[in-house]
From TrEMBL:
Name recorded for this polypeptide: Beta-glucosidase
GO molecular function: beta-glucosidase activity
Signal peptide (UniProt feature, chain positions): 1-36
Keyword NAD: no
Gene Ontology biological-process annotations: carbohydrate metabolic process
Disordered: annotated span: 42-62
Keywords noted in UniProt: Glycosidase, Hydrolase, Signal
Recorded family membership: Belongs to the glycosyl hydrolase 1 family.
Pfam families linked to this entry: Glyco_hydro_1 (PF00232)
Residue stretches of biased makeup (Basic and acidic residues): 49-61
Amino acid sequence: MTISFQSSNLRHMGLPRSNSTLLLLILLSFYLLCHATGASSSLTPSTISDEHNSDDHDDRVPVAANRTSFPAGFLFGTASSAYQYEGAAGEGGKGASIWDTYTSRYPGKIADRSNGDVAIDEYHRYKEDVAIMKNMGLNAYRFSISWPRILPNGTVNGGVNKEGITYYNNLINELLANGIKPFVTLYHWDTPQILENEYGGFLSSKIVKDFVGYADVCFKYFGDRVQHWVTLNEPLASSLYAYGVGMLAPGRCSKWMNLNCTGGDSGTEPYVVGHNLLLAHATTVKLYREKYQQTQKGKIGIAQVSQWGIPLSDSKQDHKATQRQMDFTLGWFMDPLATGNYPRSMRSIVGKRLPKFSEEESKMLKGSFDFVGLNYYTTAYISNAPPSNPIFLSSTTDSQTNASAVKNGVPIGPKAGVFWQYIYPKGIRDVVLYTKRKYNNPVIYITENGYNSRIPLRVLCATFLPRINKIYYNNFIL
């Protein structure tokens, strides 16, 4: 769901009034999926009890939301990413991405051994998807462009794929024809495999030039209709989890971390990749502002991981640890955009393993966003931890913190379908306020938010939708 509050409406989240507009974009693809499968239950009042009710709201679910439920300017939408939605992996002139290779070569890395070869087949069925969005009353859709669908050989010199251009033009036009605003992400982790083979992808600074070339093509062909660009989706995830623990493509980490990794160094590579991602972001924003923004009148920003942290105890150590945790997550990729440098705690702890920005790069980074996207899913209790063993250095432990979803035997909220997610609605408000105060009151979009379940979709939609309605309507939105 996409939510947009003007400053006069901030009281709905308990947020203070400000001089700027705070835009909140909450994306819940769950409802779209339920409608798509024909398995949705009606959005009617419910009195189902829940073990984690908010004291601020009663247990009843409001009647079905529609356009008149929201104030003027309110955005209500859903989101996707190219690899997870498009399918058509070998069609339309598309080149391979690192995710195509990862799921093909290492199928066991995915829980159900699935892949994105077909996904939900949006490539062929986008008109049906847009019709569902319109029927639901949505007016925004965040999707990502597949870099190798636009540039099958990774670079502009390797040729622009006209079929890819046509597909995204058709999707954008279909959205606009149905009153739906496109929010377009340039990079949702699908680096062209050819660049991974050639120079290691984002492990090399060469990627910056090639990424900017790709972005230039997107701005040229789509920018006349796209008013909201997101350069990177969750650079923390594509650094830490792809190169620190090997959970995401290309699956790299130190052997002591995971014997199934394809190679790597958990103590250095995530920082190198993160550095190059930041430079790719800043250089792309510079290009857009200098070449396109004045005529196209669009905005450009970034979508960040925004897991919230709460001190496990009242001790000074745990309070300091909680701030370090924020520094090593949101701060890792926000501080450089606000100050031109990494958080002080990161520079102090990581030391020489953390790349440095030149004076010119620092200047380019500072202020390189028109808005900030926050992807919020969960909150954890944070406690202090000792420094890492120098033999086993890792970006996952450098913050010298421990995170737990349980305090005194009580979970922070209901457990979702993945091991790391516990539902804690208040965290979304806390992280918005933190971002507002720390980063000089930027325009904020909640670019992702959702609830994961391992229950089959049709069963979930028919049986558990009222419960999820209550959690999200009562606690996240009202």
